[in-house]
Amino acid sequence: MIIITNNPIVKKQLTNKEILQKDITYIEILKECRDLIHKGYELLSHPLYGSVKPNETPYRSVIMKKGHNLDHNSLILIEEAIATATKFQNNKKTPNWTDQVIDDFRVIDFDILNNTLQRIEYIV
């Protein structure tokens, strides 16, 4: 399992997980996931999970696993997520939030990720 994220607290909090943390945008995180899918990875979490819109938060964390072949379902899902996030950004850019709001979005992303990890690990 690997977590692709642009949220700096994910790497600090989840020291026992494989984390690919990059200082890139929300949409670039989705594109990074797409590139990994082309290399045989599969999505374990939905790329647009949570109720925060893609143009509201700058943070996204996605859980993936190494597969054996191109997973067409993951590819379709990530392409649709990229299109949706791009549409939201084109309609209204992510605001220039205050530091406090940015911190809140980090916590929200981490909390959703952590809860998703617990469910995945329970199933596996």
Task: Please provide a brief summary of the model.
By secondary structure, the chain is α+β, with helices and mostly antiparallel strands. It is built from 4 helices and 4 strands, in the order βαβαββαα.
Structure in words:
This protein has 124 residues and is an alpha+beta fold. It has one domain (2-123). The chain is built from four helices and four strands; from the N terminus they run E-H-E-H-E-E-H-H. The chain has helices spanning 8-13, 26-38, 72-91, 99-123, and strands at 2-5, 18-21, 41-43, 61-66. It has a four-stranded mixed beta sheet, sandwiched between helices. Strand 1 (2-5), helix 1 and strand 2 (18-21) form a beta-alpha-beta unit. It is globular. It comes from Romboutsia sedimentorum. This is GrdX family protein.
Largest sheet: 4 strands, mixed
| Count of all domains | 1
Q: Helix- and strand-based class?
A: alpha+beta
Mean pLDDT: 94
Low-confidence stretches: none
The sequence of SSEs as H and E is EHEHEEHH
Whole-angstrom Rg: 14 Å
Helical amount among residues, as a percent range?
Answer: 40-55%
Number of helices: 4
Protein name: GrdX family protein
InterPro entries: GrdX-like
Organism: Romboutsia sedimentorum
